[in-house]
Amino acid sequence: MAKTLRVGMIGYGFMGKAHSNAWRQAPRFFPLKAHVAMHTICGRQAAAVQAIRAHLGWENASHDWLEVVESPLIDIVDIATPNDSHAEIAIAAARAGKHVLCEKPLALNVKQAQAMLAAAQKNKVVHMVCHNYRRVPAIALAKRFIGEGAIGEIQHFRARYAQDWLVDPDYPMKWRLDKNTSGSGAHGDINVHIIDLARYLVGEFKEVCGLMHTFVKERPLTAPTSKLQSPAAKAAEKKGKVTVDDAALFIGRFANGALASLEATRCAAGRKNQLTLEINGTKGSLSFDLEDLNRLKFHEVCGLADRQGFRDILVTHPDGAHPYVNHYWRNSNSLGYEHTFLHTMADFVNACIEGKPVHPTFEDGLKNQQVLEAVELSVKKGQWAKV
Ligand code: SOE
């Protein structure tokens, strides 16, 4: 009889919705080593959590995270809260002996990330950061190709994560625009995803040189009620100071000698959630675009000049050829954003039962945080920084 792992999820916003869906659906597709019980959802606003509980599929609601984390009825703590509470919740959960899954970025800074890793290691719990893009089947396939030497020695890693929700200067202040709650802007929110993929696919960074910018320095505290605001209403609007970057770019060098070029922005008009990667090696190249996430482009250097070019691999083969895919549909149907979370939860649950580390661990979260901080230091000093 398989064991049941009872989950307590703290947070119920956008990520709370993505995680709830994954906890609910992962057992329906994957042969997990444990049953999953969606035991308790928790958030600060008691009425709002209670209202959303049944909708997202949880058995209980709570507004006291410490009670959830310390409850003997909980085995896994899933942290989907704003970044400033990750450290406190994760450390308390590890001390209570709970396995911890934490949203990215792991922490506000390196110091917090170190304390989180130390707590998880000391209490011997399974720990993982929710960098869901590692588990896009096409990315997992790229990792396999690189491991098999299919593109040879890597020379370039190029990545861009572009969104456009901050192009509008009337977009109101949110916790993500305040350094105290978020740590940084596009940098910690989306650059961290491509930093994580760079480390996963290529290796550790050695040094970086960055550029960060805030295009809109003040924003309305609340959303304007109408787009047709009178000049007087606009002038009377209360504004808050944006204390994080809108865009963060950097170049860098990996320890293995490969060169990196990464760009993250929330001000790329027309780009909704574009994450592109291109990796060039001595024997070939790989290319990926999250807005077309079922495909991986693969170029192999070969002797026949007239046949050179990128091959387009539809990563939906159900017979075990492609990672994760055989657990879904018989006839190669496409997968989407939400499935990356199912893969994350499935691997995490199995690791909890096996008591084995599951990537990306808090150690990866810490290393990602070190890259984030090195870029910030480079920007501050106007020079290259060692990671
Ligand atoms: C917002 O920029 C956001 O929701 C990120 O926080 C997520 O990590 C990313 O997957 C989508 O965009």
Descriptive account of the structure:
This protein has 387 residues and is an alpha/beta fold. The protein has two domains: 3-133, Rossmann fold (3-Layer(aba) Sandwich); 137-292 and 294-335 and 367-386, Dihydrodipicolinate Reductase, domain 2. 34% of the residues lie in helices and 26% in strands. A nine-stranded mixed β-sheet has the order 16-15-14-13-7-12-11-8-17. The protein has a six-stranded parallel β-sheet with strand order 3-2-1-4-5-6, with helices on both faces. α1 packs across α10, α4 runs parallel beside α5 and α8 crosses α11 (362-381). The longest helix has 20 residues, at 362-381. It binds alpha-L-sorbopyranose. The site of alpha-L-sorbopyranose has 5 residues, from α8.
Question: Topology of this protein?
Answer:
Elements: E1 3-10, H1 14-29, E2 34-42, H2 46-56, E3 60-62, H3 65-70, E4 76-79, H4 86-95, E5 99-103, H5 110-122, E6 127-130, H6 137-147, E7 154-162, H7 179-182, H8 186-201, E8 205-213, E9 218-220, H9 231-236, E10 239-241, E11 247-254, E12 259-265, E13 274-281, E14 284-289, E15 295-300, E16 310-314, H10 337-354, H11 362-381, E17 385-386
Helix pairs in contact: 1-10, 4-5, 5-11, 8-11
The chain binds alpha-L-sorbopyranose.
Overall tally of structural domains: 2
Question: What general outline do the C-alpha atoms trace?
Answer: globular
- Cα(first) to Cα(last) distance is 47 Å
Question: Cα-atom Rg, whole angstroms?
Answer: 21 Å
Which cofactors or ions or other ligands sit in this model? alpha-L-sorbopyranose
Runs in which pLDDT lies below 50 for 5 or more consecutive residues are none
In which order are the strands of the major sheet placed?
16-15-14-13-7-12-11-8-17
Strand percentage lies at: 25-35%
Major sheet attributes: 9 strands, mixed
Q: Give the topology string: H per helix, E per strand.
A: EHEHEHEHEHEHEHHEEHEEEEEEEHHE
Tally of separate helices: 11
CATH third-level topology of the largest domain = Dihydrodipicolinate Reductase, domain 2
Number of strands: 17
CATH structural class of the largest domain? Alpha Beta
